[in-house]
Amino acid sequence: MSIGKNIIHDSSRGHVTGTSVFVDDRAAITGEIQVGVVGVPVAAGRIKSINSKRAELVEGIIGVFTAADLQHNQWGAIVKNQPILVSDVIGYIHEPAVVIAAENRIALEKAKKLIEIECDEVKPTFSIDEAIKNEDFLYEATPFVQGDVDKALSNSEHRLKQSFECGGQEHFYLESQATIAIPLENGQMELHSSSQHPSETQHVVAQALGLPYHHVTCIVKRMGGGFGGKESQAAPFAAMAGLVAQKFNRPARIALSKDDDMMMTGKRHPFKNFYEVGFDSKGKITALKADLFSDAGAYADLSSSIMERAMFHIDSAYYIPDVLITGKCCKTNNHSNTAFRGFGGPQGALTMEDLIEDIAKVVGIDASEVRKINLYGQGINNRTPYGQIIDHNPLKEMTEKILKDSQYSKLRKEVEEFNKIKNGKVRGLALSYTKFGIAFTAKFLNQGSALVNLHLDGTIQASTGATEMGQGVNTKIQQIIAHAFGISPESVQLMATSTEKNHNTSPTAASSGSDINGAAALKACEKIKKRLCVFLHKHWSGEVFNDVKEIELDFEGDLSHIEFRDGLVVDTNSKNEIKLTEAIKMAYLNRVSLGGYAHFKTENLGFDKSKCEGRAFNYFTNGAAVCLVEIDEYTGELKVLKTDILMDLGRPLNPGIDKGQVTGAFIQGMGWVTHENLFYSDKGVLLSHSPTTYKIPNIQDTPREFNVEFIENHENQQAVHRSKAVGEPPFLLGGTVFCAIKDALRYRVADNRITSPATNEKIIMKLQKAT
Ligand code: MTE
Ligand code: HPA
Ligand code: MOS
After folding, report:
1. Are 235 and 197 in contact (CB under 8 A)?
2. What residue ranges define each of the domains in the chain, with the CATH number in brackets?
């Protein structure tokens, strides 16, 4: 049985031996054209003219294209307000404007430098503060309201009125945006794209090229990481490759350089949140009034949904009786910000976790105690700011366990002692949580599909609506299918995702890839199994099998006595058994279908914005972390000495893969709140646009001691095989490192408030104020 086992990731050998094929690893096709893109030189204003004469003279350049060459030049995941190629009003610096087609990449690089774009420049807006001043918003969310916040605030013993800021984050997937577009006969187009959202890529490319959807197929074998950065933003680059392929009727390949990718694509949204909180002398929160502002950049992209998810996570894991939460997406002249692991959740939750540290300081109680008394309860204190009632909440038990396992009290005493001695080092300790809502908040996206084909040798090929980006969704679905047929996972091969096999797919996002597509795969297996069972039942009971009549899925008899296990099909009543391979052959010869397609939709969802109630989420994935950090007071350098993580992943489908997801997400979250800092020039040029200037965590930054454990939870009936989604939730636990930094600073400076990321520079500047 494969469920719950540590089956190795189906690409792990390929990845470490370098044989996994990513888009740009695909062998060149005869006649293939290389595609490059040039962006505008200013952040705001209008394009006056584009001169490509000098570029066209470069040997090997065969064409230069602009917006005028596209049939349709508007795209956007929610609001279609973004041009694929800008032709008039400029959104941001380096915004794609010109596409170059070349016989080789050397010519391409040469020509890119020779494109001249003349612009009328106007004063750009780069900051949230400026956008607020100008009241320039792309979206204003419907507020979340519970109770009477003003009254509750005025009745509170203590109040804090302040703001919290967190920065953006580069996705830093190792594989840049890439697509190969191959023209087929009759104007059809095949796309091999590094996209989390093959259906949207198909649609955007079809529209851009003036093709009906059935003439465009998007195929995704795998991505070299996506992290949200390829949910919406893969599509416009695919359209550029498609444009060239169509113009020349030759295959065309685009694979952005790291620098182009970093400068042209959107990142995590920076947020600035203003709030007033009320609490009592024990630190119990009584009311919260918060106004959230994100830097959406130049276009809408997914910003509205991201803002809403930030609002959905402002509570982190704590009950707040009276609330008023508003959210606005600021329009700026920055790259259009987009999905990134957590999708606004981290920006909301960190605001609260940061705030808890401040409350603890005001009331003079250890922050872990303040957290404990504010946690959502069971049966009481369980209504969220958006009116969803939290059931099955293991946060209390998880807290007890992690405080004990991490030896929190002992560590606290050690930190106190350690910090008494001024030896140039100061330590900090923190506990914090993740309670991540699982479901797309746009209800219609909560659907998945799968196609499962059983071959005559007993092996299976399957493809689903999910795309593989390293997270292991294919391996998990491989396990689900193998389990369903009682065969070994090696007999199941997950094939590339393709819009030809699964249509109208949702993006692989919101951590729900295996929840929805895994459930669809299971349904598809059940359909095939039912046909096999009906056939075998008739065969074993001596009924004449009528192969003219199709075996219908509405057969009403009981088939539960027929089981699939260890490569056999067994009738536990009659004790008949047959090898699965034999059963398949017999079924085939009797003209029984061995293929299955299924569609799955998540039940019981529905958030009513106007009433601020209902079920926004299917369930929550919970986690807790304790982090111990040490800061060098002379350099501001940070070391994470110890991290303990406890996750609630229900019954994990593959604990090994999930452990990888938990550690990876935590480290990525830690990077966001510590080292990862986006620097821009005063013209808006991203200065940190390569690995030399943008620092993601490396092996030295990982916790010296790193313990990851899962609680036992068999109760989650909301997801396939009682598992829980894992991809994004542990990202939020990275915030524990931020809280631990604040805790360390508390021992040395009166004002320990710091904005995220708490870089070494910011830390040392804080500490120097102490002397
Ligand atoms: N893990 C790896 N290795 N690479 C990725 O790009 N993306 C994350 C997460 N884990 C990502 C990853 C994000 S943002 C999401 S939403 C989920 O995986 C998507 O996959 P799932 O829904 O199958 O978990
Ligand atoms: N999460 C992630 N991606 C999304 C969502 C969401 O809630 N909605 C649309 N794309
Ligand atoms: Mo993940 S940000 O939902 O792709």
Report:
1. yes
2. 12-123+177-255 (3.90.1170.50), 271-388+395-441+609-768 (3.30.365.10), 447-601 (3.30.365.10)
The number of angstroms, rounded, from the C-alpha of 61 to the middle of its chain's C-alpha atoms is 38
> Amino acid identity, residue 358?
D
Query: Is there an atom of ligand 1 within 6 Å of 471 CB?
Result: yes
424 three-class SS: coil
Instruction: Based on the residue annotation, tell me whether 357 is a catalytic residue of this protein.
Output: no
Mutate to test the pocket of ligand 3, among 194, 231, 471, 514 (most ligand atoms within 8 A of CB): 231
Q: What is the mean pLDDT of residues 132-149?
A: 98
Indicate if ligand 3 lies below 6 Å from the C-beta of 510. Answer: yes
- Taking CA atoms only, the protein residue closest to ligand 2 atom 8 is 440
Indicate if the pLDDT at residue 554 is higher than 90. no
Length of the chain: 771
Residue 770 confidence class, pLDDT cut points 50, 70, 90: low
Q: Which residue has the tokens 């085939």?
A: 588
Q: Residues with Cβ within 6 A of ligand 2?
A: 231, 302, 305, 309, 339, 343, 440-442, 445, 507, 509-510
CA distances from 761 to 199, 638, 674, 738 (A): 43, 10, 10, 14
Neighbour tally for 770: CB within 10 Å:
13
User: How far apart, in whole angstroms, are the C-alpha atoms of residue 89 and residue 67?
Assistant: 12
- How do beta strands 638-648 and 619-632 pair? antiparallel
Tell me how far apart the alpha carbons of residues 471 and 246 are, in angstroms, rounded to a whole number.
34
SS3 218: strand
Q: What is the DSSP string of 699-718?
A: GGGS-SEEEEEE------TT
Token digits of residue 339: 């999905």
pLDDT tens digit string along 248-273? 999 999 999 999 999 999 999 999 99
Question: Could you read off the pLDDT of 400-435 as tens digits, one per residue?
Answer: 999 999 999 999 999 999 999 999 999 999 999 999
| pLDDT single digits (tens) 580-601 | 999 999 999 999 999 999 999 9
Asked if residue 431 lies in contact with residue 626, where contact means CB atoms within 8 angstroms, the answer is yes
Task: Provide the percentage of residues in the chain whose pLDDT is more than 70.
Answer: 99
Q: Which two tokens stand for residue 4?
A: 């719950």
CB-CB contact of 131 with 331 (8 Å): yes
Average confidence (pLDDT) over 229-258: 98
CB 223 within 8 A of CB 470: yes
**Residue written as token pair 């509170």:** 156
Q: In the predicted model, is pLDDT for residue 771 greater than 60?
A: no
Predicted local distance difference test score (pLDDT) of residue 32: 98
- Alpha helices (H) in 75-158, listed in sequence order: 105-112, 128-134, 149-154
Q: Which two tokens stand for residue 715?
A: 């109760």
The pLDDT-based confidence of 524 (bands split at 50, 70, 90) is very high
Whether 234 and 177 have beta carbons less than 8 Å apart is answered as yes
Residue 648 Cα distances to 130, 281, 397, 510, 722, angstroms: 41, 32, 11, 17, 11
